[in-house]
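Morning. Coffee machine broken again, so started the prediction first thing and wrote up yesterday's gels while waiting. Chain of 325 residues, entered below exactly as on the submission form.
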Amino acid sequence: MQQDLPFEQGPAEAGAAAAADARRLALEVIATLVNIKKTAADQLLRKAGVSNDLIRRFLTEKDPITGEKRSKREAGIVVLDELARAGMDAEVVRRLIAIAAEWDAFHLAQDEYKARAVVQKAREIAGVLAEADARERTLEEKRARENEALQRRQAAQVLQQQSDLLLAQFEHASVDEDVHKRGYLLQDMLNRLFDLHRFPVTRAFQRNSGGEQIDGAFEFEGWHYLVECRWRARLADIRDLDGLLGQVRRSGRQTMGLFLSINGWSEHVAGLLKQNPDKSILLMEGYDLRAVLARQADLRELMKAKVRALNLDSEPYFSVARLVR
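Came back before lunch.
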C-alpha cells in the first residue's frame, strides 16, 4: 500500500512557519525572563522598541471577563497583535529574541532553569535568523546587480538607437544646401547629443534684455559652457569666435565656451586663441562630432581630453583622432 508523502513546504509556508515560531519564542521571552511585570516592560519591551502607549497597555490591560490584570503572556499577545496590525511585529519579535540571546540576568526570573532554556532557544533561533538574513542580503545584492546590469544594457541600447538617429540626421544635413536650416538643425542636434549623454543642457536663449543670443549651454564638472555653432562652407576665422569670447567674458567666472565649426577653422585661429590670457574657448569640428555620433568615442572622455589639453598644454583644440587611433 502506497504511503502518503509528507507535505513539503514551499518558501512562503516555510517563512510563515518560521515567523510563527519566532512569535511563540518572543512570548516565552516576555513571560519567562523577568518575573515582575514592570521590570519586564523596561528590560524587554522598551529595549525592543515597543511604544510607550503599548507598554502602558501591557502594564494595565485587564481581562474583560474577570476584570483582573492580564498576565505577562496574555498582555504580550495583546502587544504583538497590535504591532502586527501596524506591520511592526516582525522587527520587535527579532529584537526580543536578540535581547534574550544575550541575556544573563537570570536572577530576575521566577524560574531560573526555565529562563535558561528560553535563552538557549533564543540563541539557536537568533543564529537561524542571522543565516536567513545573510541569505536574503545575498539575494538582494544579486538582484541589485542584475537590475543594475539590465539598466546598463537598456541605457546602452537607447544610446545606440538615439546616436544612430542623430548620425543619420547629420549625414542627411551634410548634403543640404540650406545653410540656415542646417544651422538650426546643428543647434538642436548638439543639444540632443549632450542631453543623451546626461549633460545638463540649456537650449538656445536670450539674455541682457534680448541683446545677446546664446545658441545653447551645458554643464560639465561644475563649469558652465556656452555653445556657438557654425556650419558654413568657409573655414571659421577668429572674428567668428569674437562673439563667443565676449559672451563668456560677460558671464560668471566658472563659464567657458565651446565653438563648434563643422568645417573647421583657419590656421590662425588656434594660435590666436593661445594668445588669449583667459584660455576659455574649446574648439570642436565636424570630425569630432561625427566620431561621437558613430560611437567611436565617448563624449565625456572627449570633453575631458579637450579640457585637459587646454588647461595643461594651452591647446584650444584636441582632436578626437587622438582618442580613437
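Strands lie at 201-207, 212-220, 223-230, 255-261, 281-285. Going to sketch it on the whiteboard this afternoon.
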